[in-house]
Amino acid sequence: MRSSTSYNLWLIAPAALMVGLFFLYPLFFSLYSAITTDEGGLTLAHLEKAFELYSNDILFTIIIVLASVVLLAILSISIAALITLSPFRSIVSLLGFIYRIPLFIPFIVTAQMMRTFLAKNGLMNNAFIASGMLTPLETVSFLGWSGIIIVFVWKQLAFCTLLITGAMAALDESQIRAARNLGASRIRILFQIMLPQITPTIGVAMILSTVTIMSVLSVPLMIGTGTPTMMATDMAFRINSYGDYHVANALGLVSYLICAGLAWFYLRQSLKEKGAI
Question: Which of 99, 95, 87 is nearest to 161 (CA)?
């Protein structure tokens, strides 16, 4: 028994070492740096400076994340419902192919694509001008907060839809057939039978998307148009321009606190699915 336990510990040692070196150590070091001086004494000065300089950016980040997550939930649930409940299989196959495309495109490539598409003289407005729908003076740039939301939603839509579609497909088909036999419409089946059962999966999809959106640097840098901007940009600016790791890590601490509750829900749900709790 003891040798078996020792063998199991050796099996997980490489993975544990990787997690410790490349996740836990940087995490605790950044948290330590956020609340200490160069001499090692405890201080809240870095947090106070972060809020003094970047409170608008923190609020802007929260608003961008909330708006993106709400749109993601609406669109991903709608597409997943169409794929699961639609009788038109050819349309479903085409939709399934189209919505998966963003999965294979990195964020930095997505940001560059959308920058050339959403700009005032970009592809979208040029197409409208060529079709006669707009004149050059009537075009509007979507670079800025609206463009950031569009990029995040477009990029994360495939990931969220895959999770939600999988959860819908895993439901007991007899429930849906019974509801149809009793005359329930597809809308009623979606809202009264399917969504209540897959709410935890929807929550996990939105949490993972929130954490991803919070961590992306390329999109606010390339799509944003100045201030306010997102916290990831502020952290990069403090380090690259001033070498100020303390304030950058203080902003990171704020990000950790924002994501902490979401992380608790995600870990609890994962353990529940595995039967650990």
Answer: 99
